[in-house]
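hiii so um. not sure if this is the right channel but i have a protein structure encoded as tokens and i wanna go backwards to a sequence. like what aa goes where. can anyone help
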């Protein structure tokens, strides 16, 4: 619930402050924070909800009436696609972090078991 609540806050801030495209990094922060739990499913759900929230905010919600449609101009369409790729890249990085953290924990446990026996 904490991760999804964080995403809701990110979605709200990103939608209201649409003039700042760098705020897409809020979604990245929410995804990377889930790596603390070491759960692939949680990170995947958070990433998919973040990507969907970003896309909905950019494509369907027009909080600012002066904002042009994202796909109307080439520059904004490229920025949108790059932002999606960045979100996907950080999701994959989060999965990689979880993988290596689990491997490290497994080695530590194996060393403890072999050292005490």
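sure thing!! here u go:
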């Amino acid at each position: 619930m904490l991760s999804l609540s964080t995403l809701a806050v990110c979605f709200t801030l990103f939608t209201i402050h649409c003039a700042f495209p760098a705020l897409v990094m809020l979604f990245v922060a929410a995804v990377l924070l889930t790596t603390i739990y070491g759960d692939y499913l949680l990170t995947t759900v958070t990433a998919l909800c973040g990507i969907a929230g970003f896309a909905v905010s950019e494509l369907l919600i027009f909080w600012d009436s002066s904002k042009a449609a994202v796909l109307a101009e080439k520059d904004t369409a490229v920025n949108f696609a790059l932002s999606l790729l960045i979100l996907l890249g950080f999701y994959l990085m989060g999965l990689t972090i979880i993988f290596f953290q689990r491997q490290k924990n497994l080695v530590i446990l194996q060393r403890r078991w072999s050292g005490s026996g």
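oh and The chain has one domain: 2-116.
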